[in-house]
């Protein structure tokens, strides 16, 4: 299917028409997230995401929910470290009605005091549930170990202290920053009206351009975070930052090491040694840095043994055959991008944040062409066990002892 790229009124559009479709998918993304916050307002983007659904002068929260559930499959939103996204799938004849409501959500949310106070309790409960999950806490603490001193270390939800401090003025300021010209992109898929772009910009008016401050990363030094709790095991996240990286190359390296049950970490540490139930590697790719990480959970007496095995696997990584991993990445992306919503969302993010127009065929061909030498700079970087920061939650005494010797 053909992909169209249009820029109008400060909004970047990606359109993929399918005349056989009976629905219309819409993704509205702002490239402003928690990484563009500070210690005083950390969590305000996520809180804003909640609050724009509370209603405007024209549409109550009931109006919003009823319209989208009756005319589609509901409306949803989520916040990440780099973005806030609103998504919905509707019947094509509801397009104007959807734009009218979303326009009011962006241009005229009420931000009533009672709604703000109610939502603080909701988000605090969301925060508490997150912090009651040891593997999530381990992952959150890893970011602090890696990026302390930079907003990338912030949790998207904020902290109890910042959440309690949010008020109407803070929300209105963040609203203008998030939905500002130059920071918003729109993806449409399905039965798209011919004049969809014109209709969109007629309804949706963005705020003045906002350029978030650029904050340099502090010099990186490996560090450790220990947090004891009542868990019967230890939950370990370890990671290394990559300030210069190639997204396609790091996907292949991740596939070799710990993505899936055919990876080295799973085959050796889970299947051959029986030391863990869950172990995998992961990549969090951002605009100016990538986090390459490894996660595992184990009973306390096995944790140091697992670290020993990880070190051994990393040392042998430069000698591993890359062929199967390339094939695995190509097949995974091919299947993922068979879903047009997944594909157009990936295309939109690239177009919005870099201006580049990506093509699935070109990316897959490039990955297939990689040689061992092409990947060696990335392989060597992730192979340096001693440069990983480590975050441990649970029973930590044996781990602390093992890491010190």
Topology:
Elements: E1 3-8, E2 11-17, E3 24-30, H1 44-51, H2 61-71, E4 72-79, E5 84-90, H3 95-107, H4 113-131, H5 134-147, H6 160-165, H7 168-178, E6 184-190, H8 196-203, E7 224-228, E8 234-242, H9 247-257, H10 264-272, E9 278-285, E10 290-298, H11 300-316, H12 323-338, H13 340-354, H14 360-369, H15 372-382, E11 389-394, H16 397-404
Parallel strand pairs: 2-6, 7-11
Antiparallel strand pairs: 1-2, 3-5, 3-6, 4-5, 8-10, 8-11, 9-10
Briefly summarize what is shown.
This protein is of the alpha+beta class and 405 residues long. Helix content is 46%, strand content 20%.
Question: Overview of this structure, please?
Answer:
By secondary structure, the chain is of the alpha+beta class. It folds into 2 domains: 3-203, Cytochrome Bc1 Complex, Chain A, domain 1; 224-322 and 370-404, Cytochrome Bc1 Complex, Chain A, domain 1 (2-Layer Sandwich), CATH 3.30.830.10. Helices cover 46% and strands 20% of the residues. It has helices at residues 44-51, 61-71, 95-107, 113-131, 134-147, 160-165, 168-178, 196-203, 247-257, 264-272, 300-316, 323-338, 340-354, 360-369, 372-382, 397-404, and strands at residues 3-8, 11-17, 24-30, 72-79, 84-90, 184-190, 224-228, 234-242, 278-285, 290-298, 389-394. The strands form 2 sheets. It has a 6-stranded mixed β-sheet, sandwiched between helices. The chain has a 5-stranded mixed β-sheet with strand order 7-11-8-10-9, with helices on both faces. It is globular and about 60 Å long.
């Amino acid at each position: 299917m053909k992909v169209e790229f249009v820029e109008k009124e400060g909004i970047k559009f990606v359109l993929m028409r399918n005349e056989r479709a009976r629905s219309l998918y819409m993704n509205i993304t702002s490239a402003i997230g928690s990484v563009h916050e500070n210690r005083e307002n950390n969590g305000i983007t996520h809180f804003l995401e909640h609050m724009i659904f509370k209603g405007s002068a024209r549409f109550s929260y009931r109006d919003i929910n009823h319209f989208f559930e009756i005319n589609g499959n509901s409306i949803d939103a989520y916040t990440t470290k780099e973005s806030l996204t609103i998504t919905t799938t509707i019947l094509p004849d509801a397009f104007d009605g959807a734009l009218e409501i979303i326009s009011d959500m962006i241009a005229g949310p009420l931000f009533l005091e009672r709604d703000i106070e109610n939502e603080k309790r909701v988000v605090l409960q969301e925060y508490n549930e997150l912090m009651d999950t040891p593997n999530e806490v381990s992952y959150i603490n890893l970011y602090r170990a890696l990026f302390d001193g930079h907003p990338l270390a912030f949790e998207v939800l904020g902290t109890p202290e910042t959440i309690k401090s949010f008020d109407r003025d803070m929300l209105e300021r963040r609203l203008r920053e998030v939905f500002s010209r130059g920071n918003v992109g729109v993806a449409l898929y399905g039965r798209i009206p011919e004049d969809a772009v014109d209709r969109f910009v007629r309804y949706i008016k963005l705020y003045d351009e906002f350029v978030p401050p650029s904050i340099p990363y502090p010099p990186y030094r490996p560090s450790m975070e220990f947090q004891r709790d009542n868990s019967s095991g230890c939950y370990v996240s370890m990671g290394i930052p990559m300030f210069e990286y190639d997204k396609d190359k790091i996907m292949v390296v991740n596939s070799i090491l710990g993505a899936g049950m055919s990876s080295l970490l799973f085959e050796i540490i889970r299947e051959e040694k029986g030391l863990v139930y869950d172990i995998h590697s992961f990549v969090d790719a951002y605009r100016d840095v990538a986090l390459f990480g490894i996660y595992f959970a184990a009973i306390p007496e096995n944790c140091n043994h697992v670290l020993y095995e990880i070190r051994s696997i990393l040392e042998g990584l430069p000698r591993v055959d890359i062929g199967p991993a390339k094939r695995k990445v190509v097949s995974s992306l091919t299947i993922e991008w068979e879903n047009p919503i997944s594909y157009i969302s990936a295309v939109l993010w690239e177009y919005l944040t870099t201006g580049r127009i990506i093509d699935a065929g070109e990316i897959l061909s490039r990955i297939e062409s990689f040689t061992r030498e092409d990947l060696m700079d990335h392989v060597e970087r992730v192979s340096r066990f001693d440069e990983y920061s480590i975050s441990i939650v649970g029973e930590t005494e044996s781990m602390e002892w093992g890491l010190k010797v």
